[in-house]
Design brief:
single chain, 379 residues, mainly alpha
């Protein structure tokens, strides 16, 4: 939520992280947590147990001796795990949409974004399923495969995201809120003050207007100088906000590039970044909302100051009120979400990482199948 007012740019309020306190450090039991953390863990346990059961019972060796194709056997295990994950994906997404509709959560998401969300998670589940099958092939025991997969899951879901945040914060540190606000306030006080009639810059502007219109006092001007002074104050403040918030946003974007680079190595971070972009909850959407809201604020305040200056009042007349027609004509805020292509453009490295992971794991499965058939791996 942003509070719109004159003389200052709004700061986002009532965010989930801000309201959550220390509880926000722990994952919430929502659809994203289920799909990106719980379902992969389920696939890991089922994958490690499935092929291991065939191996320990001798069924895998018997199938190979009877001329069974190892690639087909491994492919069958992979498809079973993937199909199960896709069913769970549809259940979670459908439940989420129905709950949102029942609770009055607004319009359904655009079909393009929803379709890409499903495709992205389907790709991610293919990576997890392929990793589960490949591990059970290359490890001699189900215990070894399960331990390796669980270790990878812990590293990918807990350690790497925290390490990425730490590295990004070290490389591109952000100023504290107190320092940031103090710097902006100092820069703001160095400019004109629309509320101070003795401000040096406003006195020069006043003298120029008096000379231009050939009058002696501001009361004789054909406009209200107070409104002009307020707009001058506002425009200088906008320059200050653009400079300081611009540097802050640049640092945030640089931190985001670190996360995208790490996502190439971690498919769990990759799917998280992509799904946030598709759901409109990532940094790019947040900054887009702030930019649009700030543009609306500046247009609104400029209209108010212009009406104050040229709407019919005289300098010093603070009892004058604009007519209702003026306020009725002011436009309402309408948010325009970034297009799908714009939202996904920064996530190309993450998508590339998922595709590379899937290709590499499928190659590992194929190679393992060939070695099983040649007797080079235990079956």
């Amino acid at each position: 939520m942003l509070f719109i007012e004159g003389h200052r740019q709004g700061v986002p309020l009532h965010t989930d992280a801000g309201r959550g306190g220390s509880v926000a450090r722990f994952a919430r039991l929502d659809g994203a947590f289920l799909l990106q953390t719980v379902v992969p863990l389920l696939l890991i346990f089922l994958g490690a147990a499935g092929l291991a059961a065939d191996r320990e019972s001798g069924r895998l060796k018997l199938l190979l001796v009877q001329g069974g194709n190892a690639r087909a056997i491994l492919g069958g295990h992979f498809l079973i795990l993937w199909t199960l994950a896709l069913v769970l994906l549809l259940v979670v997404v459908t439940t989420s949409l129905l709950t949102s509709a029942v609770m009055g959560g607004g319009e359904p998401p655009p079909f393009g974004r929803l379709g890409m969300l499903l495709l992205t998670h389907a790709l991610f589940f293919a990576v997890v399923a392929a990793a589960s099958v490949a591990a059970t092939v290359w490890f001699d025991s189900a215990r070894g495969a399960l331990l390796a997969l669980l270790a990878g899951w812990v590293v990918a879901t807990v350690l790497l995201p925290r390490a990425t945040a730490g590295v990004a914060g070290t490389l591109y540190p952000l100023p504290s809120q107190d320092v940031f606000q103090a710097e902006m306030q100092a820069a703001r006080q160095a400019g004109p003050d629309g509320h101070n009639p003795e401000d040096a810059e406003l006195e020069r502007l006043q003298a120029a207007l008096l000379a231009e219109h050939g009058v002696e006092t501001v009361e004789e001007l054909p406009m209200n100088f107070d409104g002009i002074a307020m707009q001058v104050d506002e425009e200088f403040g906008n320059q200050v906000w653009d400079e300081h918030y611009g540097r802050l946003r640049d640092q945030l974007r640089r931190q985001g590039t670190v996360g995208s680079a790490m996502a190439i190595l971690n498919p769990f971070q990759a799917v998280d970044h992509i799904s946030m972009a598709l759901a409109g909850t990532d940094l790019a959407h947040d900054l887009a909302f702030q930019a649009q809201a700030e543009g609306f604020r500046r247009t609104l305040v400029e209209a108010l100051n212009r009406e104050h200056a040229y709407g019919g009042s005289k300098t010093g007349d603070w009892s004058w009120e604009a007519p209702p027609e003026f306020f009725a004509a002011l436009p309402a805020y309408e948010h325009a979400s970034p297009a799908l292509a714009t939202a996904l453009r920064p996530r190309v490295p993450d998508l590339t990482g998922l595709v590379l992971w899937l290709a590499g794991l499928l190659i590992a499965m194929r190679t393992g199948a060939s070695r099983l058939e040649r007797g080079q791996l235990m079956c």
